Every structure is written in C-alpha cells, then in structure tokens.
Amino acid sequence: MDNLLFKKKFNRKAKIRVLYDAQTLESYLRKDSGRRGIFFVVHNIFKELLKRPELKVKVYAGTDYDIYHRVKKAIPQIDFGTAVKCCHSDVKDFDIFLSPRHSIPKEIKETGIVCYTIVHDLIPMVCPLHDEDTLFFDIIKSLTWEDYIFAVSNSTKNDIIRLLPQVDPDKITKISLAASANFYPCIDGEQNQQIRIKYGIPIDKRYFFTVSAIEPRKNLIFTLRNFIKFIGKNHVDDLVFVVAGCVDDNFEKIFNTEMASLGENSMKIIRIGYVDDEDLASLYSHAECCVFVSLYEGFGLPPLEAMQCGCPVITSNVTSLPEVVGNAGILINPTDDEAMVAAYEKVYYDEKLRQELSQKGLNRAKNFSWKACVDTMVDEFRKHDFTQQKSSYIISAPQTWKHLFKKFIFYISNEPKKTKMAILCLEIFKIKRKKGEKTFYILGIPIFKKNYNHANE
C-alpha cells in the first residue's frame, strides 16, 4: 500500500460536451419506401446541435467502427469530428449522452454521464402492432428514475407519465419538432404538371393529398371510405385522392380488400408509393388539402409540412395533432364518418375557406423550427452544473496489481455487491467523495454511485 500514489486530476470545461448516438443518422440516406419521418428528426437535431458554439458534439459509434464514414456521407457538408467508441475511457470525458432513437447502453450509464433519451411516441403500448417492436421495448426497459427524457409533444409526455412509472416525471421535457426547409409554397404550375405525370396523377383533376404509411393506426380505410362516400353523395367527378407512402406488409391484404369493396369510384384513389424529397413541396402546394386523420401520433409531421407549404389541413382532434395544427386546420373526431364527409365538403366547395386555412397554416408553421427545438434541449443541458472545477481520484499502482483489481471489480455483476465493493475501496484507500459527485475512479475504473451515503461527507 505504501507504493500507492494518489493524484488529483482536474478538468475545467468551457463547453458542454455532448455525445450523440449516431446509429440512426445514416438511415437519412435511404431513398425508398422504408424511409420514415424519424430519420429526418434524428438528422436535423444533430445538424442543429453542431451549430451551437456552447456545445462540443461528437458521435457515438457503439461497436460499429465504420459508422463514422457512413455518417460523414449522410452529412458531408459538416465536419463533426471523429467517432467515439463504446469504452469507459472515452465516454467519461463527456457531460451528456443523447440518444435520439436507441436505448442507452448499460456501460454508458455506469460511467455516471448524464443520459437523455428522445421518446417519440408510445405507439407499441397504445396501439399494439402485429409484430413486437424490439427496438422500442429495449428503450422502455432501459429507462429508469435516473434518466432524463425529451418528449416530442405534451401528448407523448403525458403518455410517458401514465404508462412508465419507472420514469421521474420531473425529468421529462417537452420539445417541438419542425418541418424541413424543403417544404415551402411551390407555385410553379408547370413543375407540378411534370411531377403529376411522373407519379400518374391526372393533370386535369383536383386532388386531396396524404403522406402516410398504410397501417391501421393511420386510419386510411376510414379516410378513403368517406372520400368515396363524399364524391358519390355530391356527384363529384373532377377530384381524386392521392396517397403517398408505403404499405405495412401485415396490413396490405386487409387494405386491398377494403379498397376493392368501394366500387368503381375506388379508381379515384391513386397510390403513388415513395415520393422523392424534391417533389413533396409541389404536391402539397397544389393539393386542395392535406388529409391526415390518424388515430395516434407522437407528433405528426405531415400536417406541419403541409401547413408550411400553404396547404389546407384536415386532421384528427386527438393525441398530439391539435398541438401541431392548433386553429389553423379542420380538426375532427377520427371515428366520426359524418364529420369526415362534412370536412371534405367544406374544403372542396369553399375556396375562401381554403385560402383562409392556407394563410393560417403558414403563420402556424412559423412557430416550429429546429432552432427552437434545440434551444429547449440546450437550456435543459445547462441546468446541470458542468462549469465548476471537477476532480476524480486515480490510484497509481503496479500494472499487474492494477489489472487484477480491475478484473475483480468488473466480475461483480450484482449492483448492490458492486456498490459495497466500491465503499470498501473508499474506506481502504481513505478516499472521500465530494458532495454531489456520483462517480469514483479507482485505478482508473469509474464506479457509479447510486445509493451511497458516506459518513465523512
């Protein structure tokens, strides 16, 4: 023991150091029907974080050592440093670990770093799917009272409080998402005609428009059945309904059967599948309205995209959608057939209403931006005290003894026993934990403290 040397290591940080989980970033590159809105969210939050001078942001690659190069391809215009691998010696030098989609690894949490997870929705718990969403339940199982959460709407925040009792409600912060700058009023009629030809949309017809995955939660059977009812009731012949988005494999047979039962007018429903990014603004801008009467949304990007293009919106009055649309659209009960038909009639026949909704939507969309979203996140980061001088104790010892001790500590998998071992080490080496610190470094080993009350504090 006489050979042991105690050294204080000080680290004064000028910036908040954020480690961003990069495992979903590269998915932004997808150009097929599997591309989901969440990929845009993960990508845009990351880009906005990189703009902040008060932050130092790096990416976490997990065990995928090549992820840096693939992410670099996804965001080629920005130099975001090198990927950080999953090991204690790297991660402990950061203040914040931010996961925009995945569960936070246990070994990350054990370093004592402040962990934030973005929870987009609780769909698999509220609206169970055909197949269990393994990724989602991995996140849910990993969340504890110690974790901090960003919820993408008040609706999602309330669902978390109601359904996840293991989470501290005071550590949940609501953030608002945003639409991409690619969505804007696109009034070029000639361009729209070319895009219509590209996707098989008649150039001599007006059209309603939706961008939606074809799955039960999106309520498309209800939406389209009442569209057919509307055009039949009013003998409308100059209107079609354009559906963009992929179909859920488990739901495709049911959906096709329902569409076939709608009669000859079902030919006025045009499914165009995946739409290229550069074509969406024009399709929204020239539509009579965007229809999005989903049964459940964590946030609901399509109505916001539509409003940002000046497209009138019909949407649901449930979950998060009223938070997004406010009074800038027509909100209905998504199970009320008569209300759905009446909404179609209002928008189709009343040009003045369409113009009013268009302007309201444009004004409403200005309330949402990625800057505002990340402003809220940074404000939350600042609530933690990362500016004070911090110290950790590292014990120098002969390498063999150090190696054996390290192996011994990590062979203890039981958390209470590991805590007891940490206390024993502290007593043997006479190390005092400074008040407020949660992590001890013994022989360079970070030991995360949860329920330890040191007598000498």
Key attributes of the depicted protein:
457 residues, alpha/beta, Rossmann fold, 3 domains, 7-stranded parallel sheet, 6-stranded parallel sheet, 18 helices, 17 strands, elongated, disordered N terminus, disordered C terminus
3D architecture notes:
The longest helix is centred in the middle third of the chain and has 15 residues. Helix 2 links the parallel strand 3 and strand 4. The N terminus and C terminus are likely disordered. The protein is built from 18 helices and 17 strands. It starts with a strand and ends in a 9-residue tail after the last strand. The strands form four sheets. A seven-stranded parallel β-sheet has the order 4-3-2-5-6-7-8. Strands 11-10-9-12-13-14 form a six-stranded parallel β-sheet, with helices on both faces. Helix 1 crosses helix 16. With 457 residues, the protein is an alpha/beta fold. It is elongated. The protein folds into three domains: 179 residues, 3-Layer(aba) Sandwich (Rossmann fold); 180 residues, Rossmann fold, CATH 3.40.50.2000; 59 residues, no CATH class. Helix content is 39%, strand content 18%.
